[in-house]
Amino acid sequence: MITRRHLLAASALLPLAARGTPPELVRPRGRVVLTISGRIGVRNAADAAQFDMDMLAAMRQHSFSTHTPWYPQAHKFTGPLLREVLDAVGAHGRTLRAIALNDYTVELPVEDATRYPVVLARLFDDRPMSVREKGPLFIIYPFDSDEALRSERYYSRSAWQLKAIDVV
After folding, report:
1. CA pair distance 56, 80, nearest whole angstrom
2. What's 17's domain CATH number?
3. Can you list the positions of beta strands (E) in the chain?
4. Which residues is 73 bridged to in the sheet?
5. Residue 46: helix, strand or coil by DSSP?
């Protein structure tokens, strides 16, 4: 269900092209679930762009079902495309350093986000993900869409319990 809060969050992500100004992000109203820092052009905090779950939910959502090494059967993952989140913050680096809640860190090329429909999943089978279920955010590749994605290289780039992305 789209609420007024979702509409306000979505409008904060749209470029203000008519006025010739760069895109802007509102400050999160809820608990911050994702912080993007580094080589970005749009910030809503001193040195980063912060998102709460409503801000991510207000972005265009994409879903796919895929098999993963972590579950015995395919599951549906839903969230904004990683490339659209990066566009919203004006990312201009070549590498993403994804950082999980337990400080696990993995690097992935920005090219992955442009080449594949990588989702910043916030829903698992249409339900929010708890930390115990690899949430609240999970970078997930559409493994079933391309045989090349079914490899340790891409599995290792699928960071769960994501809390931050540093654009380098």
Report:
1. 7
2. 3.90.420.10
3. 32-38, 48-52, 62-68, 71-79, 95-100, 105-109, 119-121, 123-124, 127-128, 138-140, 162-167
4. none
5. coil
Model confidence, pTM: 0.86
- 162-167 and 32-38 as β-strands: parallel, antiparallel, unpaired? parallel
Which residues are paired to 100 by β-bridges?
162
98: which strand partners? 106, 165
The parent domain of residue 18 ranges over 4-167
* Domains held by the chain: number: 1
Where are the alpha helices (H) located in 26-93, listed in sequence order?
A: 53-58, 82-88
pLDDT in tens, 72-100: 999 999 999 999 999 999 999 999 999 99
Segment 152-165, tens digit of pLDDT: 999 999 999 999 99
